[in-house]
Design goal:
heterodimer; A: alpha+beta; Alpha-Beta Plaits; 2 domains; two-stranded antiparallel sheet; 5 helices; extended; B: alpha/beta; Aspartate Aminotransferase, domain 1; Aspartate Aminotransferase, domain 2; seven-stranded mixed sheet; 13 helices
Chain lengths: 161, 386
């Protein structure tokens, strides 16, 4: 992957000047490269990784992984039915996968009830959806490469040769 | 009679005491931003740690052969061949040491007869001189302050008449970060070959070379048989605490070093050796990532120091800056102690790295970008008030 992307993927707030220094490029060149990535849709957006266990007052508290079995449509395959599903704002991620079921969704809701309601009233009744299996998330250990547990740090000795 | 009188004179005379007092002061203080650290601030990459843990689970808890695990020596041999075209026989020309520190000790003890002279360019890493003296050798210090902290062929030639047995060359250098291009090294090697000076090279910071490719001394024309190449895993893979280094050189020298090593150390702890094997397999990507981060910090620190009037050249390697204090009117101890007491920032006084460097301090940028920014702010405040 392009080095600029690697840096931004790690810390989206790295200043352009710093990236330029790191890569020995001109800040303007870096700025332009980033613009280009944004325009081409390589960089889609910048967002914060939030540890929701600590931000207790958050709205969206419950997450579920939902496996969905669907009947593919002639000529369209899975794409059309996937689109009908991922259009719901409750669906935060949607993947087509190999194996015993077809689509894997990540759905967020205020509580168990709202998620269950979404499945029963919106998802399951869809034409072409043959079945669903809902797994509620109990605890998050690591997300997008970030370990969520605050660890005690090993302190280096403060001075050494 | 106090027990102190039992201590050998040679040992009693070691290590400038002023520095020790300063170190104790730092260690006794809380919430210090330390730019005094000689090790990476990264933790060893997970794959490498995992290999260490796994080896324990599998019951690898025994001695290894004195020279070190064959698997590790073979890995090092292949790595050097592939990366630098440098060939060492893993059977006879490679020894695994407890970091480069042990490598230096073994090298000097293997080479020195009483009175033998060893050339040490200064400022230098702290152990070379004292270890030379411990083995009854005579260190000859070559002051490089007038040549940008670089040993030059001319400086070297000025010391040939003393008939030195060996030269210890450390590059990229701790404490200055200075390193050499291939052409510069060629010239130095030429003088060494001509004057029969054996070269011990401490290249532990080799992977942290920023502006050009590192050249191992042993790859220079005719230099392989005249060089003992010391390197290790500490800086490249953030593995300081594992204590794994290696020495490569002519088999007679390696055999001599192994003799001492087998009596004094026996072998490097097996867990560290197993982890080091993994570092050679999966660690290279982490090296590149760490290097990029250091480069970013280097720009910040060098730029920041020069703005404060603490002038320093941009070093091409390691993670140190060695700025001059002349404009502050302070000595290294005054500066270091003042900065520590008033602003809680720790740096190492230059005199630790050689006489005649009390107008310098060593600043390590193996600390987070945020810490470095804050430290520069504090330094600015300190300089304004003093």
């Amino acid at each position: 992957m392009e080095e600029i992307l690697e840096i931004l993927e790690k810390d989206a707030r790295t200043p352009v000047e710093d990236i330029a220094k790191m890569l020995k490029k001109k800040p303007d060149a870096v700025k332009q490269a980033i613009k280009k990535f944004e325009k081409e849709g390589v960089i889609l957006k910048y967002k914060a990784v939030i540890n929701k266990e600590l931000a207790k007052d958050t709205e969206s508290e419950v997450r579920a992984l939902i496996e969905v079995n669907v009947t593919p449509q002639k000529d369209l395959g899975f794409d059309k039915i996937a689109e009908r599903i991922y259009a719901y704002p409750e669906v935060s991620s949607c993947y087509l996968i190999s194996g015993t079921y077809d689509l894997l969704l990540i759905v967020e809701g205020k509580n168990l009830h709202t998620v269950a309601q979404f499945v029963a009233e919106k998802l399951a009744p869809l034409e072409n959806v043959r079945g669903t299996a809902t797994h509620f998330l109990l605890k998050k250990y690591k997300e997008d490469g970030v370990i969520l547990k605050q660890r005690e740090e090993n302190k280096r000795i403060a001075i050494s040769y | 009679m106090t027990k102190k009188s039992l201590v050998a004179k040679k040992v009693e005379d070691m290590q400038p005491s002023g520095i020790r007092v300063f170190f104790d002061l730092v260690l006794g203080m809380k919430d210090v931003i330390s730019l005094g650290v000689g090790e990476p601030d990264f933790v060893t990459p997970w794959q490498i740690r995992e290999a260490g843990i796994y080896s324990l689970e599998e019951g690898f808890t025994s001695y290894t052969s004195n020279k070190g695990l064959y698997k590790l020596r073979l890995g090092i041999s292949r790595y050097l061949k592939q990366r630098f075209g440098l060939e060492y026989d893993p059977e006879e020309e490679i020894l695994i040491t407890v970091g480069v520190s042990e490598g230096v000790d073994l090298a000097l003890r293997s080479l020195i007869n009483p009175g033998d002279k060893i050339l040490i360019p200064i400022p230098s890493y702290v152990s070379y001189g004292p270890v030379t003296e411990l083995t009854a050798g005579v260190p000859i210090y070559i002051n490089t302050r007038k040549s940008g902290f670089k040993l030059t062929p001319k400086l070297l030639e000025e010391h040939i008449d003393a008939r030195p047995k060996a030269l210890i060359l450390n590059y990229p250098s701790n404490p200055t970060g200075v390193t050499y291009t291939r052409n510069e090294l060629k010239e130095l090697s030429r003088v060494c070959l001509k004057s029969n000076i054996f070269c011990i090279t401490d290249e532990v910071y080799a992977d942290l070379t920023y502006d050009f490719q590192h050249t191992p001394f042993a790859t220079l024309p005719g230099a392989r048989e005249n060089t003992l190449y010391l390197d290790g895993f500490s800086k490249s893979y953030a593995m300081t605490g594992w204590r794994v280094g290696f020495a490569c050189g002519p088999k007679e020298i390696i055999a001599a070093m192994t003799k001492i090593h087998q009596y004094t150390i026996m072998c490097v702890p097996i867990t560290g050796q197993m982890a080091a094997c993994e570092a050679l397999v999966s660690g290279r990507k982490s090296v590149e990532e760490m290097k990029r981060e250091y480069r970013r910090r280097r720009e910040l620190v060098i730029d920041g120091l020069n703005r404060l009037g603490l002038s320093c050249e941009k070093p091409q390697g390691a993670f140190y800056a060695f700025p001059c204090l002349k404009k502050t009117g302070m000595t290294d101890m005054e500066f270091a102690q003042g900065l520590l007491k008033k602003e809680k920032v720790a740096v190492v006084p230059g005199s630790a790295f050689g006489k005649d460097f009390s107008d310098y301090v060593r600043i390590s940028y193996a600390s987070s970008y945020e810490n470095l920014k804050e430290a520069l702010v504090r330094m600015a405040r300190f300089l304004k008030k003093n």
